[in-house]
């Protein structure tokens, strides 16, 4: 198929960007979206133009590196999908596809379609961990955990930290990401020792990074490639409320 | 952790919106219930008596102070949150995300709230200010007591078609504001149990339809002469 691509080009964080139109031809419907970009980049290199910078790593939908906002939706038109797993059969011959970077002040553009998502790393550093004693590994089944809790925790742990929730949210809020990370550990007994300080510190870091507040619209849940539920945000709110009401300092 | 830290955090600000919002929802129950007395078809006797109780008894008067405190906190915090949230994305998208996953009214709470505020200013000017400050004609109840004839004030006010239309628009704005706000408030205070979520969702949508509809029927009833 032949396609027109309207791609955001930006030299660096400090300069102003703009859209540039490209044409790609003979694209296989079985290619992934990123493979189509590889073809375009080879074409650009041959023409002596600067190739388009974009984030990618595993190309298996599990690392959370890819981050394109395609035709008005993070990760493109398919549900529960990452850009690398989006295949060209999602489009028709002759389509014009608009590709933009994640838009949020907390995710500044580094170059073209690549944004700086280290704010997420700093949120994790603020409390997204548990303390474990050194020594022999404890038997995995020594601590009984209710099956429903383990399942809910696992569902939250599915979050790959790609930032699509922030990109889709009208407030650029990272609340779905934060709620997944807090829920994942709050639901398990191993997460209990730091339970209160975790939610307080991680939220403080999220606010400090410049993300907005949640208004429960549900846009994040609809675009999440791992289908993280909005229920996690309600759990996060409860965790924060309990922590703030019972804090003794 | 100080209270200041709690209420200046992004969740704390939302908590203020949720708690004041739920208080305002409770007030709507009282308001719609009391106003429904106009349909007693007794020439306004029951309604005027109920309105007189609310205006003269010390408990509703104290609650009224809390109500105004709540409503202004809700408005100010709502506007502040809207401005702050919008400032988090300086460069917008060329292609909008649109309705995928979210309803237009969920994304338009500030606009709906502004319409409601404009409606309230008109509503307070027509009823609350005359009954508290500038005076309303008196009427004698069957027990001999003389009270404000708010029933007559309603009847006279709602003879104007434009006022009736503005009230209906105000009630539609209220309905959509509640359709999102009711459920969102409970989510913000942390309700995440699936059974309760389903219940809150059903009650929320029901409340968002029934209460504004009942309010809208009041001016319509007077205009069309359904009450006497």
Tell me what the structure shows.
The complex is a heterodimer of chains A (249) and B (228). Chain A has 8 helices and 7 strands, in the order ββαβββββααααααα. Chain A has helices spanning 33-46, 118-125, 147-157, 164-168, 175-186, 195-209, 219-223, 231-246; strands spanning 3-9, 18-24, 69-70, 73-74, 96-100, 109-111, 114-115. In chain A, the strands form 2 sheets. A 5-stranded mixed β-sheet of chain A has the order 2-1-5-3-4. In chain A, strands 6-7 form a two-stranded antiparallel ribbon. In chain A, α2 (118-125) runs antiparallel to α6 and α6 packs across α8. With 228 residues, chain B is mainly alpha-helical. In chain B, 28% of the residues are buried. The model of chain B has no long low-confidence stretch (mean pLDDT 94).
Fill in the keyword field for this structure.
heterodimer; A: 249 residues; alpha+beta; Ubiquitin-like (UB roll); Fumarate Reductase Iron-sulfur Protein, Chain B, domain 2; 2 domains; 5-stranded mixed beta sheet; two-stranded antiparallel ribbon; 7 strands; 11% strand; B: 228 residues; mainly alpha; 9 helices; 2 strands; 74% helix; 3% strand; globular
Secondary-structure blueprint:
The complex is a heterodimer of chains A (about 250) and B (about 230).
Chain A: E1 3-9, E2 18-24, H1 33-46, E3 69-70, E4 73-74, E5 96-100, E6 109-111, E7 114-115, H2 118-125, H3 147-157, H4 164-168, H5 175-186, H6 195-209, H7 219-223, H8 231-246
Parallel strand pairs in A: 1-5
Antiparallel strand pairs in A: 1-2, 3-4, 3-5, 6-7
Helix pairs in contact in A: 2-6, 3-5, 5-6, 5-8, 6-8
Chain B: H1 3-8, H2 10-35, H3 45-56, H4 58-86, H5 104-107, H6 109-134, E1 138-140, E2 146-148, H7 150-157, H8 161-188, H9 194-223
Antiparallel strand pairs in B: 1-2
Helix pairs in contact in B: 2-4, 2-8, 2-9, 3-4, 6-8, 8-9
């Amino acid at each position: 198929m032949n396609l027109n691509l309207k791609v955001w080009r930006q030299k660096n964080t400090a300069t102003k960007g703009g859209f540039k139109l490209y044409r790609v031809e003979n694209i296989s419907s079985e290619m992934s979206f990123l493979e189509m970009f590889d073809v375009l980049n080879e074409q650009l290199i041959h023409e002596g133009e600067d190739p388009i910078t974009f984030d990618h790593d595993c190309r298996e939908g599990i690392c959370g590196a890819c981050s394109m906002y395609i035709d008005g939706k993070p990760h493109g038109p398919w549900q529960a999908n990452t850009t690398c797993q989006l295949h060209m059969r999602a489009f028709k011959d002759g389509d014009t596809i608009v590709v933009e970077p994640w838009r949020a002040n907390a995710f500044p553009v580094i170059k073209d379609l690549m944004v700086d998502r280290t704010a997420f790393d700093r949120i994790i550093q603020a409390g997204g961990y548990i303390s474990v004693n050194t020594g022999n590994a404890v038997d995995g089944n020594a601590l009984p955990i209710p099956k429903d809790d383990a399942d809910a925790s696992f569902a939250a742990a599915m979050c790959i930290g790609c930032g699509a929730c922030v990109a889709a949210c009208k407030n650029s809020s990272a609340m779905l990401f934060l709620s997944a990370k807090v829920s994942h550990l709050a639901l398990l007994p191993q997460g209990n020792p730091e339970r209160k300080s975790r939610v307080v510190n991680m939220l403080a870091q999220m606010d400090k990074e410049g993300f907005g507040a949640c208004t429960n619209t549900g846009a994040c849940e609809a675009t999440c490639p791992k289908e993280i539920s909005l229920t996690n945000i309600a759990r996060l709110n409860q965790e924060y409320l309990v922590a703030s009401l019972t804090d003794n300092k | 952790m100080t209270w200041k830290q709690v209420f200046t955090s992004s969740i704390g600000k939302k908590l203020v919106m949720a708690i004041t919002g739920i208080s305002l929802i409770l007030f709507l129950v009282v308001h719609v219930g009391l106003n429904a007395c106009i349909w007693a078809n007794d020439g306004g006797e029951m309604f005027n008596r109920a309105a007189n109780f609310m205006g003269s008894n010390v408990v509703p008067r104290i609650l009224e102070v809390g109500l105004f405190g709540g409503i202004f906190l809700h408005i100010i915090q709502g506007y502040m949150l809207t401005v702050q949230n919008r400032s988090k994305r300086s460069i917008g998208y060329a292609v909008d995300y649109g309705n995928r996953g979210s309803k237009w009214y969920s994304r338009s709470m500030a606009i709906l709230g502004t319409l409601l505020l404009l409606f309230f200013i008109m509503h307070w000017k027509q009823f609350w200010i005359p009954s508290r400050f500038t005076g309303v004609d008196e009427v004698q109840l069957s027990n001999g007591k003389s009270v404000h004839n708010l029933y007559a004030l309603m009847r006279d006010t709602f003879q104007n078609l434009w006022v009736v239309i503005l009230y209906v628009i105000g009630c539609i704005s209220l309905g959509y504001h509640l359709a999102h706000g009711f459920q969102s408030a409970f989510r913000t205070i942390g309700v995440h149990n699936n059974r309760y979520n389903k219940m809150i969702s059903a009650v929320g949508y029901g409340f968002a339809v029934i209460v504004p509809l009942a309010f809208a029927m009041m001016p319509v009833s007077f205009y069309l002469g359904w009450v006497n």
